[in-house]
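debug: dumping io for the single-chain case to check the tokenizer round-trip. Nothing else runs in this session.
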Amino acid sequence: MTRDEGWALLCEWIASESLRRHGLAVEAAMRFYAAKFDADPDRWGLVGLLHDMDYERFCEPPEHSRQAADELRRRGLDDELVGAVLAHAHWNHDAYPLDSPIRKALWAVDELTGFIIAVALVRPSRGLDDLAARSVRKKMKDRAFAAAVDREQIVRGAELLGAELNEHIDNVIAAMRPIAGQLGLADPAQS
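debug: decoded output
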């Protein structure tokens, strides 16, 4: 599946602009980590783009991730990519553990990208240009802020990748910066 086909599939299954942006953010982070692990950024990016493609239709466990996996298999994606989509949901960890770099990376960036977007949206610049890990870490301490985000998953994700938490956060911010406009995070002063 090409990236364009993946985007069309995401748009077919997801109407929400915020969920589409989440897919774009995770795609960017996965491409970044593919380079770190000497893997194919197109394959890893596709997993990031499509990992939540079934969320609007099937948001409850265990159907979320499993419906996406079924559709992706039907469209010819291989077991490595489908397994990564399944592994991003903790209820599938018995059958799809976090035991490969692509699975670990998807787990590590999924919650973090959403949290970074939330932090950027409350900043005066609404951008990523000068956002750094210290600001994200400060917001992580405020449990009322983006309360649905699993902070423990963010911390564990960095550990799974063998990265210090600040380094991991800065990596994901850097990965997202080139697509800030697509994420709705362009600095209004620069528009």
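debug: round-trip ok. Residues 3-178 form a domain with the Hypothetical protein af1432 fold (CATH 1.10.3210).
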